[in-house]
Amino acid sequence: MLSLYPFLIASPALFCFQGVFPLWLLMAIIHRIYAFFKGYPVKFIIWLAYLPAISSISYIFNYKQSKIGHVIAYIVLFLVVIPSFAFYFDKRSKSLGQAILGLESFFLIVCLTLSLTSILDFILLVNNFDYSEYLPSHVNNIPIMQGLASRVRAFWAEPTDLGMATNSFFAFYLGIYSYTSKKRKVSKPFRFILIYFSWFLILVLTRSAGAFMALILSLFLLFIVRILRNKINFNFKIKPLLYFISSITIFLFIVYINRQFTEQLDVLLIKLRLDPSNASVEQRIGGSLAAFSYFFNDMNLIQWFIGAGPGNNSLISELDMAQPSLSWIISVLCDLGIFGFMSLGYIVYKLSVLTKTMPSEIQPYYFISISTLLIHLLTMTGFYLPVLPVIFSLPILFKYLDKSSMKNIKLT
Question: Is residue 141 within 8 Å of 155, Cβ to Cβ?
């Protein structure tokens, strides 16, 4: 179970029935039910219920222009899956130290899976072999481009999804491995270099402008936040800096000697400049502007507060009634109104408060993990992917673990 669960989370399109019901989700639901019937105290987190509640109310008022599947998605993800992940690690651990070691092993498998499947996908695509033809979820896992121009998606629906997962999962794994290495007083430079290298390699293979932009903005926000809190230490430690420089040097050398691959990065730079001549950039900007126009011009006063109905943004796109927004966060404003948008904001606020229960060394890495996720969701609609429930569950896990020995955690 410990090895299978993270593998499925890192490969959501691999075992996905009819392309809409992945095996990782089924396992999360079963685990939640199992905990209930075993008599474990399954905690109900009231602030996670706000968004599903608004979604249900909005559907009742707007059922003719809504999708019941979106209501179910909100209920399952926020009331079942997020607590299920937190409970999964909580009940497997007898102490905070054991829980941290469990998290380290879990995210190691996730990051290894992302790295290996991305490299394998690129090798296959370069040789014009599309493995997704043999998967039941082929319709949601089609390749983009061919040969060296291919953008890897591994076992995710598309490259942008893989980029989002890479940023969030690698950031947290780097943080927790840095923490455990410090506690063990064991330094493994090669491991750090490999983590950085694998992270950057996947991002380049996806060539996801959203992934790069999310990471850049997240690092900038972290720098600003830590300056405001007077937590910036300008006396940089030499070892982490050397690890980073070494991995970047190796990576740039590999990219440089492959001139044909380097040429494919030009499109990525165009997207990063937000050049509207690029179809992807134009579609995202146009969709977001259309969503705001829809909110202010086509929705009535009641809908301003409870929304036009869960899934409305997707529905009007299918009916060719308007240009859809490719931003989940903007879609929340239109679909669930001001109350839904405020509920999402309150959930993020509560998670930021609970982040203080994490060891202080892990907190900045978690900031990168969740902020890149939220920035990604400004440019895509994949809230239903495993990234959001896993990352949202982590502060809850630390909240409910025993923290009596926080300062004297023993890692064995």
Answer: yes
